[in-house]
């Protein structure tokens, strides 16, 4: 991977690469007669999101790569993207299905704040029509940055999945709620699913998904609410363990998460097996704890489909893995064996 910056500003005293810390190699550019250069060994990624930090004495500006027109919106602002040969966006992004309908409301339970939820339904599906339900943590960002409801609409239009609803959960207090909060989990498992079932005709087992802390929470909700919840997709789940995640130990809720994770790792049997899809970047800091979690869930009797991808901890990586990871979970629970949706 080669990066260059040719600033015409003689005041520039240094340039460095800002990217995911899991990428090995140096970050500081070297200067030659034509500008600033950095070369990294191929880390085995299909794409890399990055920015440049341009230093002028004690001041520093973070900028996109002016030589690269390829950019992406992320949860932390716009980034330049280096796409390797062979990388392609998912085919479903090119489909143009009907946009569907969005219905916002709130769920009241044990949390100090009500939980805002927006339910997406495909065109033609009424509230009284029986349909499966996908519940999504960090729902607004999943929809905006990973195009989740577009994936769902395209899958329904292609006959890959049956018509279904998507409950996009808004994370008001994300760190507190998505860190094994008993109050949040009880709110979603009890009052939340009850309210959704009263408002809409929910058919079949609910599937819950999320990424990072949301992936942890999706699994915890699945374990808490089974068999009402039948499936989970956890992408880059934050399954913190002290032996793997010492760098995260300063996180306010680290101890609560690590204790909860250990209780799952120690399980040897389940009375309510879940279909669990898991994806994680092969270079991610989270990959070791995801491997441990996948092995533990299998040992306890859950049906686990674990995939490692050639990307890192970002919404585009999670978008690109929706098919087949989410498709497999949903079809396993919502479609008869060997049947079309």
- Strand order across the largest sheet: 9-10-12-11-13-14-15-16
Number of strands: 16
Write the CATH homologous superfamily of the largest domain. Answer: Alpha/Beta hydrolase fold, catalytic domain
For the record, the CATH class of the largest domain is Alpha Beta
Strand content: 25-35%
SSE succession: EEEEEEEEEEEHHEHHEHEHEHEHH
CATH architecture of the largest domain: 3-Layer(aba) Sandwich
- Ends apart, CA distance between termini: 42 Å
The CATH topology of the largest domain comes to Rossmann fold
- The percentage helix is 25-40%
Overall SS class = alpha/beta
Specify the number of helices: 9
**Backbone CA Rg:** 21 Å
- Mean of all residue-level pLDDT scores: 95
- Could you describe the largest sheet, including whether it forms a barrel? 8 strands, mixed
| Total of domains | 2
Short description:
It is built from nine helices and 16 strands.
Description of the structure:
Helix content is 29%, strand content 28%. It is an alpha/beta fold and 341 residues long. The protein has two domains: 2-83, Immunoglobulin-like, CATH 2.60.40; 98-334, Rossmann fold. The strands form three sheets. An eight-stranded mixed beta sheet has the order 9-10-12-11-13-14-15-16, sandwiched between helices. Strands 2, 5, 6, 7 and 8 form a five-stranded antiparallel beta sheet that branches. A three-stranded antiparallel beta sheet has the order 1-4-3, with no helix packed on it. It is globular. It holds the Pfam family Esterase. This is Enterochelin esterase family protein. InterPro entries: AB_hydrolase_fold, Esterase-like, Mycobacterial_A85_antigen. It comes from Phycicoccus duodecadis.
């Amino acid at each position: 991977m080669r990066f260059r910056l040719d600033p015409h500003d003689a005041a520039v005293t240094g340039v460095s690469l800002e990217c995911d810390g899991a990428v090995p190699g140096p970050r500081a550019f070297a200067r030659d007669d034509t500008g600033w250069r950095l070369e990294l060994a191929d880390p085995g990624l299909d794409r890399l999101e990055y920015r440049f930090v341009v230093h002028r004495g004690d001041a520093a500006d973070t900028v996109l790569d002016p030589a690269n027109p390829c950019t992406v919106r992320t949860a932390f602002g716009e980034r330049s993207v280096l796409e390797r040969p062979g990388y392609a966006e998912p085919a479903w992004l090119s489909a143009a299905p009907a946009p569907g309908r969005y219905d916002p409301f709130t769920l009241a339970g044990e949390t100090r704040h009500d939980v805002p939820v927006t339910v997406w339904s495909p065109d033609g599906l009424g509230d009284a029509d029986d349909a499966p339900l996908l519940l999504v943590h960090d729902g607004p960002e999943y929809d905006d940055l990973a195009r989740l409801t577009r994936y769902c609409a395209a899958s329904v239009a292609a006959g890959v999945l049956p018509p279904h609803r998507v409950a996009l959960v808004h994370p008001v207090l994300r760190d507190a709620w998505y860190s094994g909060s008993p109050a949040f989990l009880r709110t979603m498992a009890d009052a939340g699913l009850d309210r959704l079932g009263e408002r809409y005709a929910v058919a079949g087992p609910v599937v819950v998904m999320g990424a990072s802390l949301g992936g942890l929470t999706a699994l915890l909700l699945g374990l808490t609410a089974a068999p009402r919840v039948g499936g989970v997709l956890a992408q880059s789940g934050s399954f913190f363990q002290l032996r793997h995640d010492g760098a995260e130990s300063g996180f306010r809720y680290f101890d609560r998460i690590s204790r909860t994770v250990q209780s799952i790792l120690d399980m040897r049997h389940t009375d309510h097996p879940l279909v669990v899809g898991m994806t994680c970047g092969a270079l991610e800091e989270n990959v070791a704890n995801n491997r441990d979690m996948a092995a533990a869930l299998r040992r306890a009797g859950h049906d686990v489909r674990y995939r490692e991808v050639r990307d890192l901890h970002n919404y585009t990586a999670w978008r690109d893995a929706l098919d087949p990871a989410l498709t497999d979970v949903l079809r396993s629970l919502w479609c008869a064996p060997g049947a079309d949706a």
